[in-house]
Amino acid sequence: MATYFALSLFTLAIFFDLRAYRIPNMLCATFLTLGIVLNGIENGIAGALWATAAACLMLILLFPLYSLKMLGAGDVKLMMAVGAIIGITLSLWSLAWGIAIGGLLTVLFAAYKAGWSSVKKTVYRYFMCFCMRRYVKPDADEFGAIRVPYAPALALGFLITCYHEPALHQPFLSLLTQVGIH
């Protein structure tokens, strides 16, 4: 059941992120609440508390990336809702895969949009930020200034996690069997 809710959330988030570079607060809040309530129904107060802990962990892990303007607030709230739906361990794996895929996709997307010289310029700027221990705003011509929708990468991270976790992909297989595809 959680797999379907997470997949629905990611589908809607991708739609909004690709369309407007924005993931609506109401979407994230609805699924965050849904995750906590469903886990509470399935596992009692402990389930609701674990779902809340997963959402809080996502906030704690992703807030620094938001503060550094490396991730949008909608992406942080999206992963909080995913954490509430699928729990701590699976949301951590989804996040890890999503960040790995997102980093690669971001560089490729930015290189396509702004060119490889822009990529080098941004890497140098990040190095300087690290050395000076303060944020330096990107120039308009470097890829650090290009907005990249991140929900698709986070969704791919979730799908990879589903592939590696039988409990998550079993509902898909049974659905495919019911409709005669598998």
UniProtKB/TrEMBL annotation:
UniProt key word Membrane: yes
Keyword Transmembrane annotated: yes
Superkingdom field: Bacteria
Keyword terms, alphabetized: Membrane, Transmembrane, Transmembrane helix
Domain Prepilin type IV endopeptidase peptidase: 5-106
Transmembrane segments: 44-66, 78-111
Family label: Belongs to the peptidase A24 family.
Protein name: A24 family peptidase
Gene source species: Alteromonas salexigens
